[in-house]
Amino acid sequence: KYWDDDFKNRKIISEFMKDGELGSKRLASMPDRVTNTINVLGSDEPVCRPTVINMYAGDLSTLDMWHKQWESFMFDTPLSIKTKEGEETSPVYSMLLPIKKSKYPAITEEEEAVSLPLQTMCGAIFDAILVHMMNTVSEPDVWQPLKRTMVENLNKKKVPHTLDILSTVYSNSDIITLQEVSLSFINQAASGPLGQTYHVIAPGDLDAVRDQNSVIFLNKDTFPGGATNEISALVSSSFPEGVDVPVAKGDILAITTTDKDGTPYVVASFHGDTNGLATKPVLDAIVKAMSSDPALVAHKLIFGLDANTYEHATPGKTQDVLDFGKRYVSHELTSCWGDVPKANNYTTFNARTYLQPQLNKACKSSEKRSKGDVNPKDFILFQKDTFSVERTWKDNTGKKEYIEDMAFPTLDFPSDHGILATVLVPKK
């Protein structure tokens, strides 16, 4: 129905690639998120969907060559991945996730009901357009070697480069909270030099399919016992009854721990949804969980999060950064930025080309400052009566320096969020 009545009649650029509504519905980006790069058991190399925008190494010189490889990948190639239950082997199409209207309001109820086959079709259209476009504006023997160079620097070296920055520049940290972390990253961190210094803690409901998880590193000298308990489920159960908070599996990690002096802590790491609408509910839930459980009342809180807050928010659609500041202050918390964060204290500066699936976020290179994601998104929260801030800095170079008005990631800095670091001094 959707193909015959709508999509087959669309112009590929103006009515598909530049359709902001299609991006808001995540009909191309959701299948890409799940199938772009899949970490499989028994291999150090991930399996990639045949597309222009990932590390796929196969020949995409013609649409016919692409289609045969794409169809085989999606429907005829069972892959073994790690899940909460252990190991699961299934074809790629079965890994796709429904698109919920509660999280992505732009999608209609009718589209939500058929979101699995609909996103499969839209994902195929998107990939086909990219292959056609690249082979039209360039030659395969020109763009494919260029792609391989970019893949080597921006993709294959991303995890090793990130681990190197953490293990050298930030190796003296007591607590590190990370968001959108892959299972491969977790395993490499735990088995490498960082694993010698830190307890590497992942969520119990780790998401190996979407492969984006919040993670906590605890310095073994400061927290010799590591994590005592995971209380992520307690946090989730503290959401208001009947309210569908847009949180995905693996987004929240909250643990208890005790430092070497016997002081108990709750440490949390959280990745907010794109619009930041889950950020206040998750903060409220953490505070509620700690205050409602007698065993947690005396714990100190350290909460590192990608809040996905915005300098210029749209009420009801995106989370305003100053409004978020008022919320954490109402809980007698403060942040590394103080009680009132500066709306122009940016921790992201990135812009998307049309060679990616969130089409509503794409822009021309000349528009990257005005239409890019340049926002104050990252925070470290703690109780106001517990700590004072000695120093806070942000870093988009991997050298404890932040260059304003520089888009990133770069060949030298692998993340699309700056590193946020703070030195806290206990109040007496």
Folded structure, characterized:
The chain has about 425 residues and is an alpha+beta fold. It has 15 helices and 17 strands. The strands form 6 sheets. Strands 8-9-10-11-15-14 form a 6-stranded mixed β-sheet. A 3-stranded antiparallel β-sheet has the order 5-7-6. Strand 10 (about 265-270), helix 13 (about 280-290) and strand 11 form a beta-alpha-beta unit. Helix 5 (about 65-75) runs antiparallel to helix 7 (about 115-135). The longest helix is centred in the N-terminal third of the chain and has 23 residues, at about 115-135. The model has no long low-confidence stretch (mean pLDDT about 95).
Topology:
Layout: H1 2-5, H2 13-17, H3 20-24, H4 29-35, E1 37-38, E2 47-48, H5 63-75, E3 79-83, E4 86-90, H6 109-113, H7 115-137, H8 140-156, H9 158-168, E5 175-181, H10 183-191, H11 193-197, E6 198-201, E7 213-219, E8 227-230, H12 232-236, E9 252-258, E10 264-271, H13 279-292, E11 300-306, E12 309-310, E13 319-320, H14 321-330, E14 333-335, H15 368-371, E15 378-383, E16 387-395, E17 419-426
Parallel strand pairs: 10-11, 12-13
Antiparallel strand pairs: 1-2, 3-4, 5-7, 6-7, 8-9, 9-10, 11-15, 14-15, 16-17
